[in-house]
């Protein structure tokens, strides 16, 4: 005798489920009931929880059917086992990245492809789309959180969701996006750590013999540009006579001016002498470097110099490449640079983003507090 399944009611009339298993894991299969135009009882299987369905979606589907019955319209089709895509995530990802080549920059595509190959491919590349469950994605979150920051993990799951959406839009997949029910990880972007001038000297001395890292650190720490901004600096962006660099802010989609020191003018003058106008300043084997190539080389150095004993999740205190930007603004504030000047140099659209550095300014009130207590003593 075959196994019998008990139907479980939900909070919605006409929506119920049975408890099943998918790939050895607990699952739920949702059904809806309604009366057709001839007042006959009908029952339709909608889909599984692991496929992204839930009671709310099922109730919406049932209401849609009832609405069409009342107005004599053609009924919507319900996904069934015959309509499931037999494509794996890897096959869809290949099509997705081919599509991106037409609509996105080469650098953006390179970064996204690296993210897929490094983080998603080992988990899901061989899996059929409809078998990737919310539980599978939560497991991915858990594993990646062991070594990566929450923000980075969110980027990874967002890419997975984007590939799902591509498959649905291009009608390669008739199911739902499993990411829809995924809870994003909470992010605390308020980094408190910055490098003091002495720490900056230590870092520069450490990388001095590596021309690539030396230039990257000098440019980052003297302009405050994000890593993506720095690696995209070309010869034509540098004005040695006026000691300025035209920086591209890919986040705000704008350009702005940064400044370089007289010492850097000497270093850059020699470095760019053999480059063409459109050549990137930072290259490996005559090709523009990527974020991952810089990260791979700098991370061990930063960990050894500044992150010893710190938890990998301690984003507030760990020194990472983005700390260079934070250090630039922090040291400007400490030297008494007006907050609006810092805003301009950081290319902040909102002054509130810059005000976080005001507490480091000499006129922040810290000296006044010291003065009060000296008088009390």
TrEMBL record:
Record protein name field: Integrase
Keyword DNA-binding applies: yes
Keywords on record: DNA integration, DNA recombination, DNA-binding
Segments forming domain Core-binding (CB): 87-168
GO biological process, one term: DNA recombination
GO molecular function annotation: DNA binding
SUPFAM superfamilies assigned: DNA breaking-rejoining enzymes
UniProt similarity note: Belongs to the 'phage' integrase family.
Residues covered by the Tyr recombinase domain: 190-370
Pfam families: Phage_integrase (PF00589)
Source organism per UniProt: Halarcobacter ebronensis
């Amino acid at each position: 005798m075959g196994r019998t399944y008990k139907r479980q009611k939900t909070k919605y009339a006409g929506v119920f489920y049975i408890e099943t298993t998918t790939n050895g894991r607990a699952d739920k299969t949702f059904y809806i009931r309604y009366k057709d135009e001839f007042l006959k009882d009908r029952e339709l299987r909608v889909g599984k929880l692991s496929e992204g369905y839930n009671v709310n979606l099922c109730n919406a589907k049932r209401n849609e059917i009832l609405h069409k019955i009342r107005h004599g319209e053609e009924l919507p089709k319900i996904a069934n086992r015959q309509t499931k895509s037999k494509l794996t995530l890897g096959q869809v990802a290949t099509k997705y990245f081919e599509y991106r080549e037409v609509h996105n920059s080469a650098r953006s595509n390179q970064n996204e492809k690296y993210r897929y190959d490094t983080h998603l491919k080992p988990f899901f590349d061989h899996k059929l789309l409809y078998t990737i469950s919310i539980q599978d994605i939560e497991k991915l979150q858990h594993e990646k959180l062991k070594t990566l920051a929450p923000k980075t993990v969110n980027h990874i799951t967002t890419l997975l969701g984007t590939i799902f959406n591509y498959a649905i839009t291009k009608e390669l997949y008739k199911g739902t996006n499993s990411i829809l029910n995924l809870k994003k990880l909470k992010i605390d972007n308020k980094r408190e750590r910055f490098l003091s001038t002495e720490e900056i000297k230590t870092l520069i001395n450490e990388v001095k013999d590596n021309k690539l890292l030396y230039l990257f650190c000098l440019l980052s720490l003297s302009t405050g540009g994000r890593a993506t901004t720095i690696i995209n600096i070309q010869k034509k962006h540098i004005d040695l006579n006026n000691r300025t660099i035209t920086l591209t802010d890919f986040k705000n989609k704008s350009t702005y001016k940064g400044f370089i020191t007289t010492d850097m003018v000497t270093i850059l003058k020699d470095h760019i002498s053999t480059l063409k106008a459109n050549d990137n300043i930072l290259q490996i084997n005559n090709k523009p470097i990527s974020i991952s190539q810089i990260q791979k080389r700098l991370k061990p150095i930063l960990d050894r110099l500044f992150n010893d004993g710190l938890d990998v999740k301690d984003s507030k205190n760990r020194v990472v490449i983005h700390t260079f930007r934070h250090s630039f603004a922090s040291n400007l504030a400490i030297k008494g640079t007006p907050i609006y000047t810092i805003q301009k140099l950081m290319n902040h659209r909102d002054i509130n983003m810059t005000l976080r550095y005001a507490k480091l300014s000499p006129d922040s009130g810290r000296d006044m507090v010291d003065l009060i207590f000296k008088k009390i003593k």
